[in-house]
Amino acid sequence: MQKNRLFFLLSILMLASMLLASCAPKTTTPAPATPPPATQAPATEPPTMQPSATETPTPAPAGGLPDLGGRKITVAVENAYPPFNFIDEATKQPGGWDYETVTEICKRLNCVPEFKQAAWDGIFPAMAAGEYDMLADGVTYTEERDQTVDFSFPYVYVGQVLLVRASETKTLDDFKADTNLKIATQIQTTNEIVAKKVFGEQRVQSFEDFGAAVLALLSGDVDAVVIDNVSASGYMKENEGKLKIGGQITADEPLAFVFPPNSDLIEPVNKALESMKRDGTLYVLNLKWGLVSVPDLGGRKITVAVENAYPPFNFIDEATKQPGGWDYETVTEICKRLNCVPEFKQAAWDGIFPAMAAGEYDMLADGVTYTEERDQTVDFSFPYVYVGQVLLVRASETKTLDDFKADTNLKIATQIQTTNEIVAKKVFGEQRVQSFEDFGAAVLALLSGDVDAVVIDNVSASGYMKENEGKLKIGGQITADEPLAFVFPPNSDLIEPINLALASMKLDGTLDALNQKWGLVTK
């Protein structure tokens, strides 16, 4: 049960132009998968509790979002469609993907969601009449619905399945062939349309909600239920060991939020969703609630470009002569989850973006900052961390950042073709900046007295300070909140899997642990 309109087409463009990342990230889109809690029949009175968001979002790097000034938004939900919305059996409180995601959207837009329980039957005429500001109920886009209501762009794509009892031995083809078998679904849904088309109108019994259809299946009154795969998983969790998927019927159906025609909320909600895709929050929510899952790449080999000269991201250990760093450990963990094999390739930073654009490597892991300019030639994952640029100086230095800006005799070093070089030239003037092939050479020049400071990311500055104990220090903070991300050739089929693996690592704490271990963040 879902929809979308002009925004359905826009979604393709938006998904392809997701920003964020590292010295140059960007994203294509949605993601998360943890089963939802138990559900119960809808409550008599519509609950209005606001659940808290999964995690504190990071501000979108690409500009600000609309400010709705604390506006109240009435959001229709069934409270009987897990994992999107339900009443928790133990607490009697509402919950689900809809509650958490809409709350996050309103957090970004400065609005107040007021969830209203509504029956599915008649919801589209109610939306067309403006009885609610927004419908969040796992709704599928159809052209027919698009004639009376408007939609956001899709937040996920799903398929329809045949839900059967765990003891069932018949296949999907058996169900199609045996006209004595009864098929249940929910009234006025895309599932009902598909069920009647596949199994014949006489065999289909439509219920007011999927909860009732599933109860009929469990009691033996019907033999199967046509339902979205996401909700099927939700009911299977609630009825552990009693249900299973009996076959896949359709795939790639877009789910979206629904609005009254010409609603002024469509654009703000789309922008909020886009920002949530860019910074990974939507991936995490989708994965957490089981709307998507981490894919299996079947042992595929992934060539990963690294400099081996950018600690703590990548380096060659002086004692063992072996490569190591955050990139090696994190990409190895990603491939463990995706069933792929990382093959790290040393590459010079100079010329790496043309090489990536040409597809010479499958992936670049090198503490790369997102920029709009880079986004024109390569694609990015969502950011795995946000960093700032600092002025790295010798430990004996007494001058402040303002002193460095004022004294034109002081020489500033950095690495060529980096965002650090752009910032250094902007802050200190082009004539004073000397760009090196890598940061290792820039730091050596600082230690030898050939230059007076290095503009570098705070994370890498910490790495070089550890390598040169007592010889270097931070002389000032220049910028903050720059997103770092993995880089891919344009339209790479690895972007989505990598984003989902990163989302799973955010959900279980692995990404935070790695970031802390290697000094990308502090506790």
Q: Care to describe what's here?
A:
The protein has 523 residues and is α/β, with parallel strands linked by helices. The strands form seven sheets. Strands 3, 6, 7, 8, 9 and 15 form a six-stranded mixed β-sheet that branches. Strands 16, 19, 20, 21, 22 and 28 form a six-stranded mixed β-sheet that branches. It has a five-stranded mixed β-sheet with strand order 12-11-13-10-14, sandwiched between helices. Helix 2 packs across helix 9, helix 10 (281-288) crosses helix 17 (495-507) and helix 11 crosses helix 17. The radius of gyration is 26 Å and the shape is elongated. Mean pLDDT is 88; it is low at 1-63.
